Structures are given as structure tokens and as C-alpha cells.
Amino acid sequence: MTVVREWRRDGFVVSTDPARLDLAMVQRWIADESYWARGVPLEVVRRAAAGSLNFGLYGPGGQVGYARAVTDSATFAWLADVFVLAPHRGCGLGRWLIECVMTCPELQDLRSYLLATTDAHGLYRRFGFEEPEAGRIMRKSDPEIYLRAR
Question: The pTM is what?
């Protein structure tokens, strides 16, 4: 049985309850606004969420942010799909969302966390992330996969 975690601050809630997620909103934002998964279909977002520890950020009007951790819960976690909707940026909610992820009991005592970002290095450095040594990380990717699937 999965334990649902919640953190509260100034009328906002971060929750790991998958039943609360508005995956249609998450998909729209990632598909339309992100630089990392343009065009991602809803079914892919659903499968990704099903295989992740999800963190929904909620305000009085509903979900306003999201992050997920892909993890084996023992040694490793990949932090992915982190965002806060534009009207809610600039007041520390993104920092708080990452703080909730990093303090979540299910993600403690891991050997390593990874993430990919082109624009938020300063945010993640506050939580101990640093750029890896050149030549240690390898990647295989297909950035056009969602375009071909249509």
C-alpha cells in the first residue's frame, strides 16, 4: 500500500495522492509549454505517472504544478516533468515543490538523483545537484518520437 504524503503552506498543498492529479492539465502543459516533451500524448503522460512517485501542487483553484520521481526506492531517482503554471511563479512555489520531493521519506537515503534542465540550474544547486563529470553520463534519446506517433 502506498502512503500518501502531504505538505501545506500558505493555502497550497503538495500531495503524492495519484487520485488528485489532473493528468489532462499536466499533459497539456508538458505538450504545449515544455521544451523536453513537446507533443507528448495523454496516454504517455498517464503511463509515466503510473510508473512514478507523483507530486501535485494544488492551490485553491486546483492543480498549479507538478513533479515526478522515477525511482527504484533504494538507490536512484530521476526527477522529471517539474513545472509551476505561469500565474503562480515568482513566489517560491517551485522551490517548495522541489523541497517536498527532496524531503519525501520514500526518496531518502538514495545513492543518486538525476535530472535534466536547460534553465533552472540555480534552483537545483540549492538542493545539492551539480553538473556531472564530462564523459560519465551517457544518453540515448529520440526527441521526435511523439511527432511520429501522430
Answer: 0.92
Q: What are residue 147's phi and psi, to 5 degrees?
A: -70, -40
SS (H, E, C) 101-134: HHHCHHHCCCCEEEECCCCCHHHHHCCCCCCCCC
Q: Chain centroid to CA 27: how far?
A: 12
User: Where do the domains of the chain lie, and which CATH numbers do they carry?
Assistant: 6-148 (3.40.630.30)
Alpha-carbon Rg for the chain, nearest whole angstrom, is 15
Please, which residues bridge with residue 146 across strands? none
Which of these, 60, 62, 53, lies nearest to 24 by C-alpha position? 62
* Residue pLDDT, tens place only, 5-38: 999 999 999 999 999 999 999 999 999 999 999 9
Alpha-carbon distances of 67 from 8, 33, 40, 95, 134, rounded to whole Å: 16, 15, 16, 11, 27
